[in-house]
Amino acid sequence: MTIAQKWKIHPEHGWLHGARPEDPVVQDPDSGIWNVYGYREAVAVLGDPATYSSRTAQLFAEDGGEVIADGDLLQTDPPDHRRQRDLVRYAFTPRLLAGVEPRITELVDELLRAVADPGDFDLVDALCSPLPILVVGEMIGLPRSDVPKLERWMREMAASFGDLSPAADQAEQERVFAVTAGLMEQVVEYLREHVRTRTGAAGEGLLDRLVTAEIDGERLSEDYVVAFVKSMIVAGHSTTSMMLANTVLCLDGDPELDRRVRADRSLIAGLVEESMRFLSPIAATYRVTTRATTLGGRELGAGSIVMVWMAAANRDPRQFPDPDVFDLSRSPNSQLGFGHGIHFCLGAPLARMEARIALNALFDRFPSLRVREGATPKAHPAFDTTGLATLPVVAQ
Ligand code: HEM
Fold this sequence. Notes:
Blueprint: H1 3-6, E1 25-27, E2 34-36, H2 39-46, E3 52-53, H3 62-69, H4 80-89, H5 94-113, E4 121-122, H6 123-128, H7 130-139, H8 147-160, H9 170-198, H10 206-212, E5 214-215, E6 218-219, H11 222-253, H12 255-263, H13 268-278, E7 284-289, E8 293-295, E9 298-300, E10 305-309, H14 310-313, H15 348-365, E11 369-371, E12 392-395
Parallel strand pairs: 2-10
Antiparallel strand pairs: 1-2, 3-7, 4-12, 5-6, 7-10, 8-9, 11-12
Helix pairs in contact: 3-9, 5-7, 5-15, 7-8, 7-11, 8-9, 8-11, 9-11, 11-13, 11-15
């Protein structure tokens, strides 16, 4: 039995449970959306922004679109995308990340020391969820005391995503957008206040860089900076949290794997890549065609909505032999969990670093870490994510 079967993670997604979609590209007869399941086809879509645009927010409920799209790199196409990405790319260079590394180690230790009862705790509450917010919060200079509030907003937002698909009925889309937009507004209000107090400061942080940055000779507006910082927090929180928890779940499911990685920590990098392939936190992303095109032998008209299932592509046997086997030694492991092409995840090096530090610390502190017997870890409800929202564990 696979991990997804054991814990009943998204039973509706056949590829997580060993069943293959018959075709790599399939149109949903009700919504007209094109679902892309094949690896080669997913790479073709993500690698061709001229044919497959990222400006998808307008496809969703009318009022929600802008709140969600503003300042979000993921909603831009070339040439704007390159200009905007260049502004923040520097924050994720190996040199800058090396500077952040010792701080992440301290934060992980602090969080694990604060666990009141290692015999029985929730790993998502204790570590997976607070860590990414603490890290990004420090990168943008947010006061530590505000982090729990931000984390609460992020978790409420993740929990509110029931069915945000364009295929969902109008009432459901509007309900989700109303909740999400309300939470976003609180986050934006909070960040606006923070950005105002930082404007004019001559620091080296990400925020200082943004408030003094220029695109085409013009300073970025306050609205833009706020929206940008918001999108970094949103993009980096539940994704990293899910990836950490998913990886620990994979170890729980395979004691021999757990033993091997603990004994040889150089295997952690491969463990994280395989966990990203096996349980991809962002299961799918959207694009919209700018012109008629052919994909996997299918004819797609202009303006078609395309849903690229990276989680399914990551189990395409044409790319990954025995895709339902968790195999630490896959090489190369060209998993698509961080996307592909111009929108490839900017935070991937940071997320990988957080995972390496957190897993090492868990191994050092707890010789044994298992899912609590009788407890059931819960997956996030959103159909386009694969990741845990709770992970009750027992450590020794
Ligand atoms: C395991 C954790 C993470 C996962 C699974 C993940 C996944 C992804 C994916 C799949 C994309 C591309 C989506 C698309 O092409 O439509 C993406 C883009 C992005 N991610 Fe991540 N991400 C993670 C962590 C982070 C972190 C920690 C940050 C920042 C602090 C971050 C910031 C971004 C940004 C800014 C983009 C947009 C890049 C662009 O459009 O050029 N991500 N991420």
